[in-house]
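We emphasize that the prediction below concerns an isolated chain of 65 residues; any contacts that depend on oligomerization or on bound cofactors are therefore not represented. The input was used exactly as deposited, without trimming of termini.
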Amino acid sequence: MTWPPALARAEDDKQTARREIAAHFQASVDAGFAYWRIDDYGHTELHFHSGEVFLLNETGVTRLR
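Result of the prediction step, given as a token string:
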């Protein structure tokens, strides 16, 4: 039997992917390509100066524009 179980590994993989995505987004902000915004509903958005807008939530990232 392998440890951790497959379900736990899958959850670890999700958390790792979320951290990596957040780090890439933050690098874009740090480089001056984008900025963070909290909308009127308290949701986190990432706005790129080129016009793209992404909504970040618990289940993933959605491109709004």
